[in-house]
Amino acid sequence: MRxxxxxxxxVLLSGPGYxxxxxxxxxxxxxxxxxxxNPALVANSDYASVSLDFRHQPTAGGFNLxxxxxxxxxxxxxxxxxxxxxxxxxxxxxxxGQQALFQAQExxxxxxxNITPAKGQTLSLGTKVLYQxxxxxxxxxxxxxxxxxxxxxxESIFNGEDNTALRTNYVSxxxxxxxxxxxxxGSTMSYFGISFFDFNKPNDSFLEExxxxxxxxxxxxxxxxxxxxxxxxxxxxxxxxxxxTALFNIGTxxxxxxxxxxxxxxxxxxxxxxxxPGRSIITGIQFQRETFALGLSYDFPAGKGNVxxxxxxxxxxxxxxxxxxxxxxxxxxxKTSEKASAPKATTSKQIMPAAITKDSTEQSTxxxxxxxxxxxxxxxxxTRLKHKQDSLAxxxxxxxxxxxxxxxxxxxxxxNFEFNSADLDDESSQYLGDLxxxxxxxxxxxxxxxxxxxxxxxxxxxxxxxxxxxxxxxxFIVEQGIAADRILADGKGxxxxxxxxxxxxxxxxxxRVELTIMYEE
Length: 521
Known about the structure:
Blueprint: H1 2-13, H2 17-21, H3 34-37, E1 47-57, E2 65-77, E3 83-96, E4 102-115, E5 121-136, E6 147-148, E7 152-153, E8 167-182, E9 188-197, E10 216-223, E11 226-228, E12 231-241, E13 246-257, E14 268-276, E15 280-288, E16 292-301, E17 312-322, H4 326-341, H5 366-369, H6 377-397, E18 406-413, H7 426-441, E19 445-452, H8 459-479, E20 487-491, H9 504-510, E21 512-519
Parallel strand pairs: 19-20
Antiparallel strand pairs: 1-2, 1-17, 2-3, 3-4, 4-5, 5-8, 6-7, 8-9, 9-10, 10-12, 11-12, 12-13, 13-14, 14-15, 15-16, 16-17, 18-21, 19-21
């Protein structure tokens, strides 16, 4: 019996390269198998998800490797909308060899907790307990006890072997740490993670002798280095290191947005181009929507030392749903009910044209601008600007105005800029999205953006920062479909303060962008 087992193990371990060289293999589309990368990833998204990854890798001699991985994760979100933790379940079925001679199944439970180091950042600490069962499937193999002279082997005859000895199982413990930075839409801008698998070094021997499973370290890092319009590029590195080998998966994920919503999730395509040195070249494509994702990739064999590998195909599928806290759902339902029961207004506020002149201005802040109620925000802004534009056009045709740009509206926008920052918050994005829609409805309007800063830092630095803030807002509006030549961006640095910059409150008021909307025939 022992000779048979040892013979089978020798054949197995000399066949599939990943069993010898890397005890802990990785899928090519590892965003569908995140718990295999790092248990902390179960708490890195506001979306509950169920994902499945299927991988098939034929090798020389008909020795096939087939793996299926199911990943389930669910975030826990407080009533204030903060994602504080998450948990997950994962299952894997792995079969190798002719007639699936070697089989491994595993089930795992993961949990992670979050802290928030800074705005848009999440640091997650996760743990996972995994149970794995392995066995050698001898159903398609025969022994001498089943041989009948002149007839051959008869599988109905007992083979004389105790197949229960061909099984092993163990429990392993795993830890992970993951940090990420996201933008206002929730898209990942950069991340870093490291995890430790099988650190308790369980015994996975099929025989009586002890065979300690060595610990594995898995690390991942990525950063968005390029973004222009609908296109962005994120280089990524995944490394898997144990006592036998160190494997690296290096490459880029190029994203192309199919929609350009100013807030929320944008449908997009991910183009995967990566290489595992000495192993394979990976190419793939993924379609990502808010509620589901679908991916297809292929590993092309590469490297003279990997002649048995004939390539691998991988298919990934993910279903997602945004998790909304119960308290927020009740509040949203209450507001919807109140809005439905409220009487409809019979009149609307309008600005009369007679008072509009070249010097007429309207001062407001971003907070006031976004407090217009209900679904009428975009309509209100478009209608207001359309009314002013039409009034100026009437005056121009009557000869009361010269043909030059005239100020329709001037607004001071305090975009909650932090010190040395040009990031836009949700309120700012909402206002600018409404402004972009209004500009689409009023094609003869143009805008001028002038950035300003507080007095902290040098004059040269603040001048550059103020221009950059104006350019950030311009780029945002252009992304919504407005021609760039309709927008002028400039900066004044700290040269035109609204106050004396005596305290933080005054400095915050000076970190602003002045928006002027102009009419030109």
